[in-house]
Amino acid sequence: MRSHVPTPDRSPTVQVNIKNLIDEVQCYQTVRELRWPDGIACPSCQSKHVIKRGFDDTEPARQRYECHDCDTRFDDLTDTIFAGHHQPLKVWVLGLYFMGLNLSNEQIAHELALHGSDVQQMTTQLRDGIEKKSPR
Prior knowledge:
This protein is α+β, with helices and mostly antiparallel strands. The protein has one domain (18-130). Helices cover 37% and strands 10% of the residues. The protein has four helices and three strands. The chain has helices at 24-35, 89-100, 105-112, 116-133, and strands at 50-55, 63-67, 73-75. Strand 2 and strand 3 (73-75) form a beta hairpin. Helix 2 (89-100) crosses helix 4 and helix 3 (105-112) packs across helix 4.
């Protein structure tokens, strides 16, 4: 006689796009806090006399600013390794996270649904940026 061992109920596999779990607003808020712990300052003249000038048209969480002292316009990503790229900030943050988990570029590309060449460029720039900022 065979004994019947109950098998646990298995729910259907649910695939979650990790990019949907990351909040773009929180990514920008974190960049602001890390970049300007003492308050927003102009990247050109370091003045604290800065006013907000709305948000970016393509990335609504990306704040724009203008310096009262030198009239420079800038945003949250100006002069950072994240500036000037077509990938949203949360993709860069996830890329950093996956690099920290020691995933290969191929694995990162798969997780983020990106081309391998895009991930290669991103990880190279992130490593170069981290190297430049590291204390010697």
